[in-house]
Amino acid sequence: MIAATHVAGLDDIAMPPITHGTIAMLNLRAQIDSLEPDVRRGHASIESRVGLIELITLRGLILGRIADYQRAEEMSEQLVRDAPADGTAFVARARSRAVFHRFTDALDDIDRAERLSLDAGITNHERASIYQALGRYDEALAMREEAADRRASFENLAALVGLYAERGEIDATERMDAESRRRYRGVSPFPLALLDFQLGLMWMNKGRLDDARASFDVARRRVPAYAPAQGHLAEVEAAQGEIGSAVACLHVLAVSSDDPDYAAQLARILGDVGRAHESRHWCRLAATRYDELVACHPEAFADHAAEFWLAAGANPEKALRLARMNVEVRKTPRAYGLLAQAVAALEEKV
Amino acid sequence: MSDHISGPRAVADPVTDITDVFAFPSPESPRHLVLIMNVFPYAGPSACFSDAVIYRLRVRSVSIAPNTRAFAVGAGEFTFDLTFDVPAGSESGGQPVQQGRCTMTNGKTVPFRVNDENGAGAEGLHVFAGQRSDPFFLDGPMAAQTLATRQLAFKQVGSDRLYGKNVLAIVLTIEWATVLEGGPLFAVVCETLTSGKRPIRLERVGRPEIKNISLGAKIFDPVNRDLEIRDLYNNEDAFNLSEHYVGAYRARLNANLAFYDGLNGKTDWPLDEHGDHPLTGLLLADYLVVDASKPFSETSYLEIEQAMLEGREHSTCGGRWLNEDVVDFILTLYVNAGNGPRIRDGVDGPITWSSKVCPYMAPPNRQGIARS
């Protein structure tokens, strides 16, 4: 008999068990498979269509599948055309646009939703996410705190965790993280895995690799198919000298995912350890894919592509052009850091 | 919809969302009582039961309290807790196989395999669990339209968004006289709970359309017009409502039932001296009542309760059979108390009728069947 999921390392938080990640993924697929035919035939309600867009976006987030984001974006565009007087349609499109870093368009959609009398709690939640992505942290924080004051639900507190983590405020993040988990009342592993992942990113940015590793590992154990958690875990493993397991993991992801980040990481790590021939193969693949994606969604992939051209791609001119484009879109500390790296790399080359 | 998508928590995770509960004497054998609990609305082919949830069916002996026109529910309870493993392996490369078990109050356990058409049996209990066609039918959009326009909006031919959809079903066939305590009148309620040392109730369902049609609308509620009351209601023990919130449920039911009563322009349900609708107290006792000693009946939903209110002996098994059009029944009851024409929602059946042979519910539908 297999017991319900108990993720070692976080059991001390005394939370009820959550659904095993394998079941959760099967059930996510089951929901999508059941709703999609209705939407294709035009039989689905607005509510069902918004729900399907959210489910497909979630699958994209977990599996690191850009095709899912693109599908969600297409569906949300169609939804707005079909239901131009429905605020929830504009919120769905705003989310899809924000995924592709079209933040100005996304904010316009939020404004439209508000004018269509959608509840301010919903629109401000979305607006805060976009402000956060744009680096407008103070405005995002004010909205997040107001929402948490009004209702200290798991969702509202988890949103604060993400913001504090991105700002690198360790104490506030840890305090809010514990509080949000305490309020979790569901059995789905996805919200908790996403929270673990945000913590992992914070630790990584702080250079605390052991903590980052622990967080990514917990996220991966909650949802074994969680590709970004696997990818970042491999990145940390490589940084800690565990090249074999990192390469094995990234190889699987680079083959299965349409996101070039995994091929790019693999190329970098293989290059660092002198496996130049293999590195070139993955580098070529990543370069082609980044070029495709930057051509279609320049705002969304400028940052990751710039990182690639700074590392395994070895093309600082291209990196600088993309880093500049990225700063135009979002003025976050990370974007400015990337620009500074690109400038330095080019000066070094010259 | 019956109890589909009945609150924010159910929306967040359909694997915990109970869609329907049925209870009826077996059409095949009068010695057996059948209890059915359906979960996971819009279940696609890969849907599985959660390994972190207890799917619980609770049964208590019940009697009609003298001179009160209310049920007296016994303190003793018999429970059937179904738990499931993580699916493993696969049948010829297809869907992975999920194993489960049903543990009874007496400690006896019946193991079974999900989607095994034959189910498994022991100790006076037969268990089937797996994907089946959703037996519920309703024109949901017109039910919503009725609330929005404050007029009966149903059409001659309605549209059923559940047409061709599937659910995960749990079907228990119980040799009631040997397994259960007391009877033959039983109260039945189903729950999903978190597993672990201290289970937390996630959902509970007794009767159909309590949370959605009866409790869902906020706009008529004079007390809590902005409160999503359904998750609060889901938290409650059906046999022991919290005194702290019962007033909120009562106010909501009184307001919504009065709204439905007014839809035909006349009052069939005058409120009592406390301002309570005559059905409110009955509906707050939110469990199916079934008489296992009576013969199987196809249209006996709420007959025991109505007989009790009218002060007469019930004549049927009550409970709820899979194919009964409960929505038409409920609408007619709420709108004209049976004093007028039958109120129809224009949807008179599911894609496939349930059969009178175990596991009763029709096999799952192929994905993408066009709606009527």
Characterise the protein shown here:
The complex is a heterodimer of chains A (350) and B (372). With 350 residues, chain A is mostly helical. Chain A has 18 helices and no strands. Chain A has helices spanning 21-40, 46-63, 66-82, 87-99, 103-115, 120-134, 137-150, 154-167, 170-182, 190-205, 209-222, 227-239, 243-256, 261-272, 276-296, 298-310, 316-329, 333-349. In chain A, helix 2 (46-63) packs antiparallel against helix 3 (66-82) and helix 15 packs antiparallel against helix 16 (298-310). The radius of gyration of chain A is 20 Å and the shape is globular. In chain B, strand 1 (18-25) and strand 2 form a beta hairpin. The radius of gyration of chain B is 20 Å and the shape is globular. Chain B has 9 helices and 12 strands. With 372 residues, chain B is an alpha+beta fold. Chain B has helices at residues 8-12, 140-149, 176-179, 210-214, 230-235, 246-261, 280-284, 303-310, 326-336, and strands spanning 18-25, 32-39, 53-64, 71-84, 99-104, 109-113, 120-122, 125-133, 166-175, 185-194, 201-205, 288-291. The mean pLDDT of chain B is 94. Chain B is 19% helix and 25% strand. In chain B, strands 3, 4, 5, 6, 10, 11 and 12 form a 7-stranded antiparallel sheet that branches. The relative contact order of chain B is 0.19. Chain A binds chain B through residues 1-5, 16-20, 22-23, 26-27, 29-35, 37-38, 40-41, 43, 45, 48, 51, 185-188, and chain B through 9, 11-16, 40, 42-53, 85-88, 96, 99, 101, 141, 161, 165-166, 194-196, 198-200, 202, 367-371.
| Rounded average pLDDT of chain A | 93
Distance between the termini of chain B: 17 Å
- Specify the overall morphology of chain A: globular
Oligomer: heterodimer
Helix vs. strand class of chain B: alpha+beta
Structural class call of chain A reads: mainly alpha
* Mean pLDDT level of chain B: 94
Outline the low-pLDDT stretches of chain A. Answer: 1-13
| Biggest β-sheet description of chain B | 7 strands, antiparallel
The number of strands of chain A is 0
- Number of H/I helices of chain A: 18
Distance between the termini of chain A: 64 Å
